């Protein structure tokens, strides 16, 4: 048996970790899960080994200890140091789901809907939701309901009847409050890529142009926000359009009048100039 284990070790098939205490990752004291718990047989790195569900056995070479780390797709809940899939009930009360290492929150979705963390919204299964072209809202099939519980985590999957298409920024700009600017999608009436004092507004088209394919009705342009004034300035022989606030315009006006007044007073005192 020892010879067989040595061969496995030599070729990287396993790790001989006899008499190495096991601890859970996240234990501040680094203590063993049990004072007497030790590995009695060779355990393969990445296997379950002596660990709990949702964990995998790993070797910590710096401390010469075996550790039980959460598997990919699991998070360790700090209160009980167990690993769960996020967006399942996990250790949370009924009607709630685990969000991260410290937080349980109310499960917000109705029956038939799934939760998308990035959008912080729920979408019905089989609909387009926040997904790209050729994709629909689908379940997280990595989750095993019998072990993990029901997952409310929504994913985007391809429609079987047709392959997923390569989504472009232009294709994704479909919301009524979004516009395209330099082939990128931005929300209307926000600063976006515009300079200070300006925001994105929809480009107005003539009625006869909206039926032309070349004209994209979703294009946006930078325009001055209400209360700001469009001003032309020459900087290094270049004309620059700026949106100036009332306070800046007033300061500029007073400054010019002050210079003009001083120049007039100087000429009055020195008429020979």
TrEMBL record:
Residues 26-45 are annotated as: Disordered. Residues 59-110 form the DUF4789 domain. Residues 31-45 have a biased composition (Polar residues). It comes from the Eukaryota. Pfam families: DUF4789. This is DUF4789 domain-containing protein. The lineage of its organism: Eukaryota, Metazoa, Ecdysozoa, Arthropoda, Hexapoda.
